Amino acid sequence: MPQFYFHLRIGRERHSDEIGLELPTVEAAYLEAFAGAQEMWTELLAERSDPTIYSFEISDEAGECLMRVPFTEVLDRARKPCAPATHKSTTALMSKTAGLTAALSEQIERTRRMLQETQETLRRSSSQRA
Q: Rounded CA gap, 82 and 114, in Å?
C-alpha cells in the first residue's frame, strides 16, 4: 500500500510529516487530509488562529507533492447548499408518512378499545364485590 505524507503549511511556513500514513489511493489521502482540516478548523478558531492560511500538502514516498488541500475547502463545503429534493423522493416520503400515520391511527384505536374493555371489566368486578 502506498505511503502518503501530510505536510502542514501555515502561510509560507511548512511543517514536514515524517511519519505518513499507508492508504490505498490518493483519493483516500485527500479524504484523510480533509477530515484532518475539519478537526483542526474549530481548534484553530478557538485559539484565535486564522484557519484560512492553513493547508495540507500531500506527497508520496518520493517526496513529490501530489496535491494541496487548503483548509478553506472545509468552509466551502459547509457553504454548499443541500441538493433539492426530487419529486420521486418527496413522493416516496409522503407515501411512507401516510402509511405510518395510518398505522399509528390504527394502534391508537386499538388502545382506546382495550382501555374501554378494561374499564368495563373493572366496573363489573367492582359491582360484583358490592
A: 46
